[in-house]
Amino acid sequence: MGDRASNGRTVVERRSERELVVTRTFNGPVRLVFDAWTKPELFKLWWAPKSMGVPILSCEMDVRTGGSYRIAFGHDASDAMAFFGKYLDVSPPSRLVWTNDEGGDGAVTTVTFEEEDGRTLLVLQELYPSKEALDQSFVGMEDAMPEQFEQLDELLITLSASA
């Protein structure tokens, strides 16, 4: 499909009416990248785009097949916005699949991690129930994902240095 955005290292593209794919190679071994997606204390250091100015208030993750997650953003509990769902497949350190249950038409997200020469190729795929649901999400994703992944890159530098 035609919609594709890239900031050089992060590519966000629509593969079909219902599918969004984001790819990026990170300078870090797959073990560290997987940890950053599955350990709440690491995840909350990079997931919220700093430009939004909305911090993560809480991050609960039971990362196992059948487990659940809940991430709340906001300045305090009264204005918090939550994202939550279930893990459908957790295969460390190569694959994560989860649902996005906060809306009526949330996507199923699949993230794969593949190591090559000490670097990690990450492919994030979101499959939406309808074209309209993807249309709504795509606008925010093409700005947010590259920034989130830049923040993950910065975290990986720190983790690699202390590993």
UniProtKB/TrEMBL annotation:
It holds the Pfam family AHSA1. Residues 29-156 form the Activator of Hsp90 ATPase homologue 1/2-like C-terminal domain. InterPro entries: ASHA1/2-like_C, START-like_dom_sf. SUPFAM superfamilies: Bet v1-like. Belongs to the AHA1 family. This is ATPase. It comes from Rhizobium leguminosarum.
